[in-house]
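Friendly challenge for the regulars: who can give me the structure tokens for this chain first? No prize, just bragging rights.
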Amino acid sequence: MIKSKKDYKEYLKEDGAGFTRSLKDILFNDIRKFKKILRKLEYYNNCKNGYLNKLIIMYLRYQFMKKSRMLGFSIPINVFKPGLSIAHRGTIVVHPNAKVGANCRIHVCVVIGATGGSSKAPIIGDNVYIGTGAKIIGDIKIADNIAIGANSLVNKSFYEEGITIAGNPAKKISNKGSFKVGWNPKTKNIISE
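First reply, four minutes later:
Bragging rights claimed.
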């Protein structure tokens, strides 16, 4: 969670690490703009008080909702730690009580949510790769360095680090974690095998 201007700058730096620095990317990359607004809203919401700042927060919320609708994202503030990587525009739904660690790579049609009206949502570790269409549901914990396969239904906890899980319901399918399957969280590079 962003608690200072230093945190805010660190989050922006980590979130932008996977992008090129071309003028075209800076001007036209909507996902980059979304993450900038997300982090700015988190900073003002968590660190700024006062009447003028409340007006700024209202404006940022408007911009955030507008960009969220355009991209198909339902991502609340203060859920993702730094290094958030969103692969493509498209539907992503995240419960406001979910907690996701640093360097998460998330694809389209992903749901991270509660079940049965519960307010308890998943807690996901650092360096987790979440494949297209994955559903992570309930009061569960996902360890660090896990790769979650496309279209998986994760409804139980996985405490073993560095594995790949997939299926409906999800189960361990290999000892290749997020560093070996599709995504290197340290370098923010796509891996092709």
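Residues 5-72 form one domain. The chain has a mean pLDDT of 89. Your move, everyone else.
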